[in-house]
Design goal:
The protein has 300 residues and is of the alpha/beta class. The chain contains eight helices and ten strands. The radius of gyration is 18 Å and the shape is globular.
Length: 300
């Protein structure tokens, strides 16, 4: 696969006060896809505007024609497979089959307790994801599903006519551990990583590259164990969480160097955050747009 460049647009702007224009500009700039976070709130943005992911993507679908749309990522923290499947089928229909579902185990952020529950341990999150993904797969590919699980159940859940994309919209499964990678190998059309979180604060770029190389190798083993060619999976790197942080957007040259290094590791899609001033995702807009329009050509 050739390298693709995508962006992630946080849902912080009112639709009629900049939101629509941002998604339309992402299409004009030629991004392969534009994603958004599927959270109820997120870190330093908690006390400011934050809109729902799926309504935002539905609006974006009506405001664009070619741009792929998706979540990076949805988690079981506040989602249920039955209701999520119905919303995804509807979104896939509105968009004309342009939706990718990024999905992961979630974390200990605000979503973990917003419904009044105690935060789950990493093992509990992994257990839930391992049940969530296969059930969602069935719900998006079968007309009617009945299943009893330890965490999620469905009773004659109907999803007619199903997705526009067949057999269903693609899953991009975020994972760094063995259980998540096995899920990606079995059910994913792509795999997503943000790098090694232990290196974010004090690691080096070289250490991050080594860690990502190891992740790619482990994904290959998980695919081999599942009897699947790892080349079938897209490999997506969401930037901003490696030791370089948002410095990858400091200049066109810096990004081209970063992208080339990670393409050589086997990544097929790199996702950069749409600039938000006075935040961890602040970046020069002109540089960002030059990256969007020129970086892939520079890579050759």
């Amino acid at each position: 696969m050739s390298l693709r460049l995508s962006t992630v647009i946080l849902p912080v702007d009112r639709w009629h006060e900049g939101g629509r224009a941002t998604w339309q500009r992402a299409e004009e700039l030629g991004f392969h896809a534009a994603y958004t976070y599927d959270h109820l709130s997120w870190r330093t943005f908690r006390d400011g505007p934050w809109f729902g992911a799926l309504p935002t993507l539905t609006a974006a679908a009506t405001a664009t024609d070619r741009l792929r749309l998706g979540t990076l990522v949805t988690s079981p923290n506040f989602r249920h497979p039955v209701t999520l499947a119905k919303e995804l089928i509807s979104l896939d229909d509105v968009s004309g089959g342009r939706v990718t579902l990024g999905i992961g185990a979630g974390g200990n952020g605000f979503d973990a307790t917003a419904l009044g529950q105690e935060p789950w341990t990493p093992k509990e999150r992994a257990d839930r994801l391992a049940e969530f993904v296969p059930l969602l797969d069935r719900l998006l590919t079968e007309d009617a599903v009945t299943e009893r699980g330890a965490f999620y159940s469905a009773e004659e859940a109907r999803n007619i006519p199903g997705c526009v994309q067949r057999p269903r919209l693609p899953f991009a499964i975020a994972a760094t551990g063995p259980r998540g990678m096995r899920l990606a190998a079995r059910h994913g059309q792509a795999w997503v990583t943000t790098g090694d979180p232990k290196l974010y604060e004090s690691g080096t770029a070289a250490e991050s590259v080594d860690a990502l190389r190891g992740q790619v190798e482990r994904l290959g083993k998980a695919c081999a164990d599942a009897g699947r060619d790892v080349a079938e999976l897209g490999k997506v790197l969401l930037t901003g969480f490696t030791p370089e942080k948002n410095g990858v957007l400091s200049s066109l040259e810096a990004f081209v160097d970063f992208a080339g290094t990670h393409r050589d590791l086997g990544f097929t899609e790199i996702v950069i955050h749409w600039p938000i001033q006075d935040s961890v995702f602040a970046a020069d807009r002109d540089v960002f747009e030059s990256i969007a329009t020129e970086a892939l050509a520079r890579l050759g």
